[in-house]
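Anyone up for a design puzzle?
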């Protein structure tokens, strides 16, 4: 049976505060746990007014204290922004605080302009070139499978579940080579989905951590009592996508009825393209769309994404989605 999890960016609403954003994420994590989700992940972003998950390990520690069983983790940590040693310490600490519950998803994209590079004191594009070596070093800092001249404490002997994140063939190939589970970010970059999963499964080499390929795919999901209501609550994230792609990101805006009808053809085409990894509508419509997506990808897990202006609408969407998905299985 397919497992379902939740990705949250800790969205900050227009007119809202950081405190409200963290409180909403905490309540969403509690709801995900109560509904039986496998994981709750937070993504690292920096210098964006509308996303508050930059200090990802700190946010995860708070969520860990607010929950009891659900796995919590990064979706992901952008390794070029850090050193492997720093991440080993941070996630070694989380593993000690919440044993058996920590996931460490790793991404390569620096996603930063010159201002952030200066703030982080990093040449992020150069650091991205060393990503494969840094992943191997990070794993060695945790496991000791390579003899290193320094030991991370906390970190050494910790057992977070390492994941490779990606939206291209590069991440798929590296995940296969290292024998790691692979999560594909189809919710914002669906272009290479099918090819990346094929490469990962074809080239997978078993490791001490994983004996066979394991795939998670992220998709945007908005469920409501009516299709019109689902499209309305989805419009906040659609606005954010359009603003981001237009170079004008900001806080999460209120929903707008009939939003897509107001857009130029190019923006409508962009949202339609992202819609191939989305399910928006009634519970039955969402169930059918997710079932078709699972059939297409053969995913072992689906990561449910999608910010709403009203945090209660996100929880309500999750409840309706998971209730509708109780009958969805894979062969």
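Challenge accepted. My sequence:
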């Amino acid at each position: 049976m397919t497992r379902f999890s939740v990705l949250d960016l800790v969205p900050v609403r227009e007119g809202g505060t950081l405190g409200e954003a963290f409180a909403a994420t905490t309540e969403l994590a509690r709801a995900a746990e109560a509904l039986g989700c496998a994981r709750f992940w937070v993504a690292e972003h920096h210098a964006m007014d509308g996303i508050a998950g930059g200090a990802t390990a700190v946010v995860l520690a708070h969520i860990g204290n607010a929950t009891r069983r659900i796995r919590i983790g990064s979706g992901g940590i952008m390794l070029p922004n850090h050193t492997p040693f720093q991440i080993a310490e941070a996630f070694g600490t989380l593993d000690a605080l919440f044993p058996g519950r920590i996931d460490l998803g790793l991404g390569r994209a620096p996603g930063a302009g010159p201002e952030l590079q200066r703030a982080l004191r990093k040449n992020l594009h150069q650091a991205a070139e060393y990503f494969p070596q840094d992943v191997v070093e990070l794993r060695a800092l945790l496991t000791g499978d390579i003899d290193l001249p320094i030991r991370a404490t906390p970190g050494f002997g910790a057992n977070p579940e390492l994941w490779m994140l990606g939206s291209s063939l590069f991440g798929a190939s590296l995940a296969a080579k290292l024998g790691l589970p692979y999560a594909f970010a189809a919710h914002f970059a669906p272009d290479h989905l099918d090819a990346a999963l094929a490469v990962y499964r074809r080239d997978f080499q078993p490791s001490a951590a994983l004996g066979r390929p394991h795939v998670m795919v992220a998709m945007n999901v908005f469920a409501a009592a009516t299709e019109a209501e689902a499209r309305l609550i989805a419009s906040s994230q659609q606005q954010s996508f359009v603003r981001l792609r237009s170079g004008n990101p900001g806080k999460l805006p209120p929903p707008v009825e009939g939003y897509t009808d107001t857009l130029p053809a190019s923006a409508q085409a962009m949202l339609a393209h992202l819609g191939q990894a989305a399910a928006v509508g009634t519970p039955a419509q969402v169930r059918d769309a997710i079932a078709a997506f699972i059939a297409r990808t053969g995913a072992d897990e689906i990561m449910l994404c999608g910010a709403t202006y009203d945090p209660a609408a996100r929880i309500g969407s999750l409840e309706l989605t998971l209730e509708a998905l109780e009958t969805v299985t894979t062969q």
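A detail worth pointing out: The first strand starts at residue 3 and ends at 8.
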